Amino acid sequence: MKKFNFSCTPKLYFGEGAFDKVKNIIKDYGDKILVITGGTSFEKSFYHKRLLSDLEKNNIIYYLEKVKNEPSPLIIDEISEKYRKENISVVISVGGGSVMDAGKAVSAMLTKNDSVKEYLEGIGKKKHDGDKVPFIAVPTTSGTGSEATKNAVISEVGDRGFKKSLRHDNFVPDCAVVDPRLTASCPKMVTAASGMDAFSQLIEAYLSTDASPMTDALALSGLEHIKDGLIEAYKNKENLDARGKVAYASYLSGVVLANAGLGTVHGFASPIGGYFDIPHGVVCGTLIGELIRINIKNLSSDPNKDGIYLEKYANVGRIFSGKNNLERKAACEALVDEVNRLIEVMEIPRLGDYGIKEEDLDKIIEKTGNKNNPVELKKEELREMLLNRL
């Protein structure tokens, strides 16, 4: 049996009503907290008022910060500097993946005196020792799985832009509170793009060359729940059963990506997100069908390739088609069709909708990683994928 390592996961509170436990969870950490939220949707909600009321009733001192976009080094540095001397007991993020990444990074940088940029993979020269302020993650979208991962994605957009991770095993949230009620206010496109991000993470981790029997089992469970819940959650935002299934899948996507890694779609997401102002979930959602198609084509045409990867794609095809008896070739074809149907039904945008042009492709491809993908893709194949989704 294959040897593998498995990182820790957060203490998890899952299900409708889980958010009601936050006030008691916070008390276990101390009486001075930093609350980081996103835009205005949570701020306008009943849950925001409820949280602040509960904190006040329990004599907990709290500070509020907003992160409206994907966190940059400047944002993280400013928040960290502002609260470094306040003896914060715990940081809690309530929001989407960017908000959770921001909170995760701030919790790590409150213990340091320099810029987060110094510790980013591929950018800085320092290695973080993992010392941090406790961190609680409360997702209001279902997609990134940041509530279960050990990295925070930090980015700068522009000609010299980047999207890099602050990473340490200790950065896994101490606690994750996943309540599907909090996702009901998501706009349809956020539900769609976030859900496709979760799907991409699950299938890339399942097909990863670093996958293990443990991550395989979790990824398949997540994929089954995406299949059962995503379209219904997209069509009917009030369906909490469907939203719960997608929230569960999103959490598992974070667990498996932290332990098996990801593939070429997320290799694309880093440079595309650095160069262009485009939602991460849109990049993943618009490209994942192309990656599946081209991987299956390569695996099918080379008799020397390990058949286990084709069989894995076939397993997912059987799940999404609902036809358990399909032969491998038919199941792989069904998977491509079903993923393209998801993209079409949920109207996932194309790259060109965000200003990406054919002349931009070379610089994207130059910085695209192919780590953990079951196929070593050539530059012309990467270009084909991008061109087909311009």
From TrEMBL:
It comes from the Bacteria. Keywords: NAD, Oxidoreductase. PROSITE patterns: ADH_IRON_1. The keyword NAD applies. It holds the Pfam family Fe-ADH. GO terms for molecular function: alcohol dehydrogenase (NAD+) activity; metal ion binding. Residues 10-180 form the Alcohol dehydrogenase iron-type/glycerol dehydrogenase GldA domain. The keyword Ubl conjugation does not apply. Residues 191-386 form the Fe-containing alcohol dehydrogenase-like C-terminal domain. CDD domains: Fe-ADH-like. Belongs to the iron-containing alcohol dehydrogenase family. PANTHER family: ALCOHOL DEHYDROGENASE, ALCOHOL DEHYDROGENASE 4. This is Iron-containing alcohol dehydrogenase.
